[in-house]
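Our consortium's second objective concerns turning raw sequence data into structural hypotheses that experimental partners can test. To show how far this objective has progressed, the report includes one record in full. It was chosen at random from the queue rather than selected for favorable results. The single chain below, 231 residues long, was entered without modification.
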Amino acid sequence: MNRLVLALALSLALGPASADLDLSVLSRAAAPASGSAPRGGPPELAAATAGDADAQFRLATRYDAGAGVRQDRAEAARWYRRAAEQGHPDAQVNLGLMYSEGDGVPLDEAEAARWFRRAADAGSPLGLYSLGLLYYQGRGVSRDLPRARDLYERAARLGHPNAMNNLGIMYGLGEGVPKDDARAYIWFALATDFGDTNAERNRDLTAEALSPQQLAAARDQVEQIRATITR
């Protein structure tokens, strides 16, 4: 079980060399606004200036991606911050990602962790997953594998496929939890069903370590857990 694939957020470095891990890029929390901005400026600008957090977030995504405006990551960060300070979870995640990369803001992993934590506390699956990655890596926080596992599982039970895959990795390698191939299979199978492109390979590798009886029981568990997942 030394070829499992770990899904990582933007530019987070790979962890300890306990497996041959590939890098899977995680995009921002939501797709940017599309289309050209009218001559008077982005359509979100008036509402954003008036303090509407959703408009601030949409405006930030425009500047982040250069959608209808000149791309300006610093301006994107400014609007993400205004929305994030009002409790907008997607803005909190995207601002945290910018701090984790030093993109539009100074590189500051502790600040990234702070914003991911705020999103996680609001129940954001992406916030939970991103904070879990920092605890897994020990970036901006002290490395804490049990805490990473807990955050991954909370995100996984909210339907986050990369969190499911990474939870499977931890069970498959015995990182922060006792090694458990059946539990690893369960999370890899769920991650595959929910769209993680690395998880199918991990599921199939893990299945080879299970007896037919163990595999049948694990597949039953997949169906039971799937029925409890909320998105």
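The partners drew two points from this record. The CA atoms of residues 186 and 224 lie 10 Å apart. The two ends are 30 Å apart (CA to CA). Both points have been shared with the crystallography group to help prioritize constructs.
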